[in-house]
Amino acid sequence: MHTECFDCFLLQANKLLAKYHIRNDLAKEIIMRFRLFIDDHKDNNLSAPEASCLLHRLIRKASRIEDLYKKEKKEYNKLLLALEEDIRDIISKSDNPFQTALRYALAGNIIDFGPPKQFDIYRALSLAVSKDPAIDHSRLLAGVLQNASTVLYLGDNAGEILLDKLLIEIIGHPNLYFAVRGGNIINDVTLEDAKIVGLTKIAKVISNGYNAPSTLINRCSTAFQEIYRKADVIISKGQGNLEGLLDEVHKKIFFLLMIKCKVMAEITGTREGDAVILYNQKMSLPKRKGIRL
Known about the structure:
Radius of gyration: 18 Å
Helix content: 40-55%
Shape: globular
Strand content: 5-15%
Number of strands: 7
Strand order of the largest sheet: 1-7-6-5-2-3-4
CATH topology of the largest domain: Rossmann fold
Order of helices and strands: HHHHHHEHEHEHEHEHEHE
Structural class: alpha/beta
């Protein structure tokens, strides 16, 4: 078990327990149950997204709040919508709109309330165009997209999806699906968020049928699995989706994300804070069943 993973979960849990004023005895019970669950499954290849599902389920039940990050999701959807036309204008006037849109989509991945560290979306956006990815397979992505019959774009976080929308506009593929989570988890994107930012107007938005902060294929709906299987190329946003799809070597997957922890930095051979456009058919990564605790 990675100490960093468990410590991250505890920090996230304590912030939520304090936010919703969960009484002390119940908070201690939640942490104890979570510890016991992790210990009971330490030999069962339990993944970090699966552990996150349980933790948030316990806190939702205790708080009686179904969407623990509703306020934050609303705030960042609104914030990015206010910046939409300015960023679209920058993209359209750039020498390479595809590359510029990619950089903004990467920058948006910093909007994540899962990791305990603070983030600054304004700084990330101001550096978006000038920040070179530590791994950059974007030219390969452009080439694969030209020949793809079906594209599947896996969303990650609310707010961030406005920048995904601008990238999808530039890609301009007539048969592009955008996948959202099957339910509320952290500040991950749901169908409601996709509607708010206008994604439903430019892409075929679908639910993956499961509320993990990742794409766990064996837990997703049959309808999602069918689209996943027929997709010629998959664009996977965020660290959570990489955690769940690291071993999906039989599919062409491009991972677009910001590296947010030491564990992922070690696996990808990068550093915390790096931006990554990683083609799974091009990069040799350690063979793992997701990112395990």
